[in-house]
Predict the structure.
Amino acid sequence: MTEQKEGLAYLPLGGTGEIGMNFNLYRLRHEGEETWLAIDCGIGFSGNDTPEAEVLMADPTFIAERRDRLCGLVITHAHEDHLGAIAHLWPYLQCPVYATPFAAAVLRRKLTEAYLNNQVVIHVIRPASRFEVGPFDLQFVSVTHSAAESQAVALRTPYGLVVHTGDWKLDPNPLVGPVTDLDTFKALGDEGVLAMVGDSTNSMKEGPSQSEADVRIGLTEMIASLEGRIAVTCFASNVARVESIAKAARASGREVMIVGRSLRNLETAARECGYFTDLPPFLTEYDAQNIEDDNLLMIVTGSQGEARSALSRIASDTHSTISLGEGDTVIYSSRVIPGNEQAVMTVQDNLTRRGVRVLTDKDGTVHVSGHATGGDISHLYSLVRPQYSIPTHGEWRHLTAHAALAHEAGSQVVLLEDGDILNLAPGEVKVVDTAPTGRWALDGGRLLPMTGGVLAARRRMLFNGVVLASFAVDEEGYVIGEPRISAPGLLESEDPESMRICEEFSYAIDEIPDELRQDDLSFRNAARTALRRALGRKLQKRPLVDVHLLRV
Ligand SMILES: [Zn+2]
Ligand SMILES: [Zn+2]
């Protein structure tokens, strides 16, 4: 494998072969200088795969080691899987950030919460404009997506033009924001595109995308047919959807109240950027106290079953101000992100148990996806006509479905995995090297490597419990008193098995040879082996085992 001394390369550190954690890098080696550019820096939600960690992000070590050559981070749009990791990873990157006004407003709030707002330089870039970051000549191209001001990025370099689509779809009537700028994509195609790196999420769906305008009609009809209290839940980053819900509510003579911090943050960011101009400010729970049930609609957070969200609390009747019951309705104007199925079903079950009617996109057109279908993807290829196609933003089945469409459109396809360094030009387009990759988990306020000792121990405890033994010894190494055993997550303290283990452990440490008793480390290791033996096979578990030795 020989690396080009000069040229352009692409490296996904996260988001290829998985949905979430998008973190893309481009490397330009030109006139003896090496420069890196990052596009997006998002989080992923682990769902059921990794119950020991909820929020994940790509390990930034590779680029952190080269951050003196990282000229900037460009954000395509304000979704968590594209900007949610910046507040955690920026200290490792320390580069300026480029984003549209809306994405910048969303990001600023996150950085303020992380006490980073004064350190991070954010360059606000108008949608659809051209700008320079280091040696990269960049152009935002407006696309329709479920976040306001979503942009594709065209990268012009001395070695060719790359189109990085970000998340996008085709929608002739997106209601908020412009339609995907197909004229510009066609013009880029005419200029000659070396490679297109693109969204694969919905590549397995045939035909064209459904329109947000259909959702507005669907919601208006559904809401008009209902009586009693209505709560609608949706993703808290979708300005068009919140507007659709609010307008559908007002068409039925209902005032709109929003519940939940992320929706209030969305309202602030959206109004700052000139959205919702023909809607009065949304009501708070306090404002809405005296409004009749039939004249109110609430938009609530919690479409993914998030435990602390407003909807989860309402469903378990633990919300401080809102309760729903017989005759009331909850509408899910959203889809379930894979991994969240169980959590969402639990909330829906709790609502149903209380007599609340639950309506979803199975009951009417109340949600459409923000991602390009197979039909949309083929259309874009016919305009951009890239020499090479690099499917990203998807799991393998999505990437391969995207690849088939690209191949049909006449592009050569390169399927990558996170960590592959792909030479784009000059010379052969192929993987020339691999960067180390990994995942970090957000655990409380800390970042921990998924493969590190702490989370490995937690995984083991989660499934096998833990057994801790403590005992005291005198200076010569003779055991004083009785050892103590505790096995949280495995045995109740009065369990006879617990007493049996304690007795056997007690015998076993008496048997430890004298020469191992002088030094604490070897004594502890021998005692740990003794504890494992005392556990035996009866439990059919391999718990995490540890021993505390106290020399008195
Ligand atoms: Zn998105
Ligand atoms: Zn995305």
Notes: The chain has 15 helices and 27 strands. The chain has three domains: 7-207+369-449, 212-359, 465-551.
